Give the backbone structure.
Amino acid sequence: MILQAAGFPSPIALAVIAGAVATMGSIVVISLAKLDRRWMGYASLVVEIALAVLFAYVVSAVYAVYSSPQLTPDAIAEGIAYQRVAAGVLSAMLFVAGVSAISYYFELSRRGHE
């Protein structure tokens, strides 16, 4: 549609990329949470940065769709699709941050701190 002609990937392609990064990142973070908290923190940071860059890219696609001079109903539908991808990336970021926070809480509660 509008952005595919400009070189942006489709919303489906971005959703697949976001899902792959989020799934593999979550598996790594959860696995490292059981082994070593320090490396879990590093992995969590890398996954969060990758998802933040992807989120910024998708948000720029949303802005590009809605700032085009030919705002047709098809363009609005495309913008909504990109917004859904952005919401998915944001929820993946919050999931990884939540897993990290819960893991640190369990570590503190196991040591007897509160």
Summary: The chain has one domain: 11-112. The mean pLDDT is 88. Residues 11-112 form one domain.
